[in-house]
Amino acid sequence: MASPAPMYAAGARPLRAWQQQALERYEETSPKDFLVTATPGAGKTTFALTLAARLLQRREVARVVVVAPTDHLRLQWADAADRAGIVLDPGLTNAVGPVRAGTQGYVTTYAQVAGKPMLHAARATAVKSLVILDEIHHAGDGLSWGDAVGEAFGMAARRLCLTGTPFRTKADERIPFVRYEEDTFEADDGERGVGLASRADYTYGYKEALADSVVRPVVFAAYTGTARWRNSAGEVVAASLTEAGTKSVEMAAWRTVLDPKGQWVPHVIAAMDERITHLREHGMPDAAGLVLASDQDDARAYARIVRRITGKAPELILSDDPKASKKIERFATGSARIAVCVRMVSEGVDIPRAAVLAWMTSYRTPLFFAQAVGRVVRARDPQESATVFLPAVRPLLALAATMEEQRNHVMPPPKRTEEDLETLDLDVPEKEAREGELQKWEALEADARFAHVLHGGTAHTGAGNRPALAPDEEDFVGIPGLLTPEQTAELLSKRDDELRIRIAASHRHDDGDFMLVEDHPDEHETNGWRDAADLRREINRLVSRVSAKTSTPHAVVHTQLRQSVPGPPSASASVDVLRMRRERLRTML
Predict the structure, then answer these.
(1) Which residue has the higher pLDDT, 399 or 121?
(2) Which of 253, 272, 290, 429 is the most exposed place for a label (fewest CB within 10 A)?
(3) Are residues 195 and 228 in the same domain?
(4) Looking at the structure, do residues 155 and 33 belong to the same domain, yes or no?
């Protein structure tokens, strides 16, 4: 005797306008394959499960199979399905044959599908099935994964592909079940060629989501700094992030500022902590932040810095930790201020209270950038905003400036040379240096300085944009409608020196697990590493701020400075004198 048909909660949760439009477009043709591209945080899961519930209710399918990127997302999908009245098994392994009785399907991962594609093919064809391929670009992570997904679900009754990020693969890695059309692309050398670009059946970008208040507005706070390192030839090199010149020098400076032993990381973490405090005090009491590290060693070191700066231990989330999923859930529902992670929360993980992100990784692909920023843009209230702190390097600033652009999956024309292949912007970490270079290359020191706020593709430095902020305005930093991007930039710039003092104090009151200020002899040597030109630029900037604050002409401020710190003009002053003048100017602000 057949069991009574289950009741599904389709429509129990009001749909957003884009979700309703996408459903209507799907039902116009009831296609075998349907690709939805929607910005992170827009609600792809809700759309997919609403469609699944409708198809189950009408008995057009009898099973739902969800393929997700990670084990944690299996649990997240199962919980969301349960709220939609669909029972999906998140624990079904490749060692178990049939789908368990009492469920309407299961959630698996791309890795599991690649392990036994024929097993999943049998499950998906035993009854009419809807296969939901979450973040379908993972089927392009390698030919073997793409082949496995095609083999497993090529005969399924319906397939729904979801993605929220721009992605790019090698020319021969076509993603299964995605429709491609020829398009013209311009190569790095300026020549044009014909490649392939994906075509979604429904697209909902960040720009549209922002207009609909589906996602939060994002403000990017860029921090520059001067880095010093010893290269593979044993030479000591110093360069600014924003004035690095060549790409190789820029990458070396970027790598150096991310070193936990320098001052850039503590400075930006302190700025991040202040932003969380202001959000919590003004309309978002559970605001939290994410620190994104390149690897597990850096993540552990950054976690120690967070504890030293904030006085509270962060949630440390590492991929090889068996408790990682529980930690993500605890952080998502708890009250902890900061979580430090590598890639565990870069894609799909739902933490609505996370509104601040510190980009402390060398990953720089459009795919990873969109995934990571997507973790802090999910809107709950129209007054909430997101802030991303990042190094002021060209690759990241370019991605931030074009965040509102809509992108497709791109398969460019084949590259002609090995050198061209190496520059292809794949979703992989930067290549490690050769073994010999790793033994010689050494990060020595780095400082941090606020550079500008990037919002809507426009940079705001906070210098000379408008009159100084009133004291009561400062309490509302970054809240839409209360402070403009220019005002936010001005406030971050003003507080930059205060953060530097706070960090120095945290070093002096260290509990022993961290290097003390006295353990950095370079900062106190008579001939310190910072070059005089860099110090002179900083002094001029501070003089401008003192002049604006006191309504005193620049020339008068310079004269007062030379009286307080005697010596020759800045153009010929020693590094020691310049450093003392800088500290004197800070006390005048």
Answers:
(1) 121
(2) 429
(3) no
(4) yes
Q: Measure the CA–CA gap between 159 and 34, rounded to whole angstroms.
A: 7
Beta strands in 255-353 (DSSP E): 288-293, 315-317, 338-341
pLDDT, averaged across the chain? 79
Please indicate, yes or no, whether residues 116 and 170 belong to a single structural domain of this protein. yes
**How do beta strands 88-89 and 105-109 pair?**
parallel
Is 226 exposed, middle or buried, given 0-12, 13-18 or 19+ CB atoms closer than 10 A? buried
Nearest by Cα to 132 from 68, 175, 82 = 68
Going from the C-alpha of 325 to that of each of 315, 318, 358, 411, the distances in angstroms are 12, 10, 21, 34
- pLDDT band per the 50, 70, 90 thresholds, residue 164: confident
Residue type, 328: I
Quick count: other Cβ atoms within 10 Å of Cβ 426? 15
Cα distances (Å, whole numbers) of residue 587 to 95, 276, 529, 543, 545? 68, 26, 23, 12, 12
pLDDT(1) > 90? no
Do 371 and 347 contact (CB within 8 A), yes or no? Answer: yes
Lowest mean pLDDT among 379-393, 421-435, 487-501: 421-435
Quick check: 517 pLDDT over 80?
Answer: no
Residue 37: which of 280, 288, 362, 370 has the closest Cα?
370
pLDDT of 50 > 70? The answer is yes
Q: Is residue 421 part of a domain?
A: no
Q: Are 121 and 108 in contact (CB under 8 A)?
A: no
Distance between CA 321 and CA 318 in Å, rounded?
5
- Is there a single domain that holds both residue 518 and residue 567? no
* pLDDT interval class at 421 (50, 70, 90): very low
Comparing CA positions, the residue from 53, 50, 48, 52 lying closest to residue 38 is 48
pLDDT digits (tens, 9 = 90+) for 59-72: 999 999 999 988 88
Nearest CA-CA partner of 245 in 393, 433, 440, 452: 393
Nearest Cα to Cα of residue 311 among 148, 180, 506: 506
Q: Whole-model pTM? A: 0.65
Please give the Cα distance from 587 to 29 (Å, whole number).
Answer: 69
Tokens for 98? 């049939």
pLDDT tens sequence across 119-132: 999 999 999 999 99
For residue 348, the domain's CATH number is 3.40.50.300
- Residue 434: pLDDT band (50, 70, 90) is very low
| pLDDT tens readout for residues 235-256 | 888 888 887 778 889 999 999 9
Q: How confident is the model at residue 427 (pLDDT cuts 50, 70, 90)?
A: very low
3-state secondary structure 383-414: CCCEEEEEECCHHHHHHHHCCCCCCCCEECCC
- How many angstroms separate the CA atoms of 274 and 416, rounded? 49
The token pair at 80 is 């969301």
Q: Max Cα separation, the chain?
A: 98
Shared-domain flag, residues 171 and 279? no
Closest CA to 64 of 158, 130, 119, 7: 130
